[in-house]
Amino acid sequence: MKNSKIETIPLKNIDLPGEAQRDSIDPSKIIELAESIREKGLIHPILLRPVNGRFEIVAGHRRFLAHQFLNLEVIASMVKEMDDGDVVIYRAIENLQRENLSPLEEARSYNLMREKGGMSVEDICQATGKALSTVKRWLRFYRMPPEFREAVDKGGICLGVAESLIEVDDTFLRSEWLRMAVENGITKAVADTWVSDYQKSKAGKRTEGIGDLGESELNPEPKKVYVTCMVCSDPIEISQAKQIILCKECRKKVVSH
């Protein structure tokens, strides 16, 4: 790495990352890493950058914590001058190479590269080896409302279901369908059916009342919105749809129809 050198830096002079890429770090994994370092030593130095007479971790947060767990005083470090943009890009790329990233962590990495790293979508693809469609998809996910991001991140719905339901422009109805989707574990095919029914209902409403404006046009009745029953596939007004409680096996049978 250009303009860098390996030094032995006291842990007391090192600060944690200014903007961590991971939502959480499993303490048990830190203990496992610490035992490995105790037995084999530190294989890869951590990466630091100098900041106001101290050092900030760019990469190697878990290795640093493992050294703290072992009550070690110093750690082998590669020190490199880096600006904020370079740090964001480096951390994001390193983070994307990890296993078991949550959907939100992956989406956040792409967003940081774009918003704070100043990279174009094409640059991100080149730096990460990801397809253009993949990067764009995760960037769209990151811009979804918080409740959608949380539902996908916690495994309540898949990303495909979120992408379907987000097309509903009625925010109240969209929130209700999101709740129903999480509670019932629907597939993307079911979500697509709900949205299709809604779009057809909207289209029918736009074509009603063409001509002279009468009292009915000035004071239209609320348009009923229908969804598809998950059991018999018949249309049902959304206000009459009820939550259903199913065991795992029955839910599989319902959503497969």
Return the CATH class of the largest domain. Alpha Beta
Name the beta content range: 5-15%
Per DSSP E runs of 2 or more residues, the count of β-strands stands at: 7
> What count of helical segments does DSSP give?
12
Percentage of helical residues? 40-55%
**CATH fourth-tier homologous superfamily of the largest domain:** Conserved hypothetical protein from pyrococcus furiosus pfu- 392566-001, ParB domain
The CATH topology assignment of the largest domain is Conserved hypothetical protein from pyrococcus furiosus pfu- 392566-001, ParB domain
The biggest sheet amounts to: 5 strands, mixed
The H/E string reads EEHEEHEHHHHHHHHHEEH
Mean residue pLDDT: 83
Q: Indicate the overall shape.
A: elongated
Unreliable stretches covering 5 or more consecutive residues = 210-221
First-to-last CA distance: 56 Å
Q: Supply Rg.
A: 26 Å
Name of the CATH architecture of the largest domain? Alpha-Beta Complex
